[in-house]
Amino acid sequence: MINNHPNTQLLTDYATGGLSMAPLISITTHLQFCDQCREAVSGLNILGGELLTECDEAELSEDLLAQTLAMLDAPMMANAETAAETPKSSLCPDLASQLPKYLHRFLNSQELEWRSLSSTLSVAAISVGETDYELALHRIDAGGKAPVHDHKGTELTVVLKGSFSDEDGIYREGDFLMREPGDVHRPSATQDQACICLSVLSAPIKLTGIKQVLNPFMQFNPS
Questions:
Q1: What is the CATH number assigned to the segment(s) 93-217?
Q2: Is 103 helix (H, G, I), strand (E, B) or coil?
């Protein structure tokens, strides 16, 4: 059962196209798990359509229809020409089976490079053309713990596989979490299964305690 969801503002920004690529991907990923939020977004889309019908009509240029049709045709032609060249999945079968199929489209064309943040925590950045956010997969080994850390910016997290807990609760597959600066926690995976999450960061995390000496070396790579 999913107990943690994006707030109303995030869902509204999503429905109105107000999010950049990385946050948009995180919410779309959550929607793959969550009927409740899919229904909420559908309702927001219907509401938006009703509001549009109440707007004053705008004068359109005579060639607008031709321009619009040309824009629609171009991507369709490009997709048809490149369909046969779509790369096969570069994901190992074990990892691919643990991720929503929606994410495969962003991962099939790139090799994931996992790097260790601790003895039990590793991260692999995902390149989606971002300039403001880092999008990445985080993996905590079974029974492992992430370092205690604060946040310098917003962090959005979707649990993809397994579960983890921290000082505030337990989070399972499909759960969506939003952390803000000042939120200090230490995620821990269950003893029997590794936990894989999709994370969006607007700034690097800030380690606390004895490991804070490593903060100058914490990477933050929007891509």
A1: 2.60.120.10
A2: helix
Q: Which amino acid is at 103?
A: L
For 57, list phi and psi in degrees, rounded to 5: -70, 140
With residues binned 3-state (H G I as helix, E B as strand, rest as coil), the percentages for the chain, rounded to 5, are 35, 20, 40
25: tokens are 């991907």
State pLDDT tens for residues 7-54: 999 999 999 999 999 999 999 999 999 999 999 999 998 876 666 566
Pick from 83, 82, 202, 89: which is nearest to 136 by CA? 202
Taking the C-alpha atoms of residue 100 and residue 213, their distance in angstroms, rounded to an integer, is 36
Burial of 160 (0-12, 13-18, 19+ CB in 10 A): buried
pLDDT in tens, 55-86: 677 676 777 767 777 766 665 444 434 433 44
pTM: 0.80
Residues forming CATH 2.60.120.10 domain(s) in the chain: 93-217
- Give dist(CA 59, CA 114) in Å, integer: 53
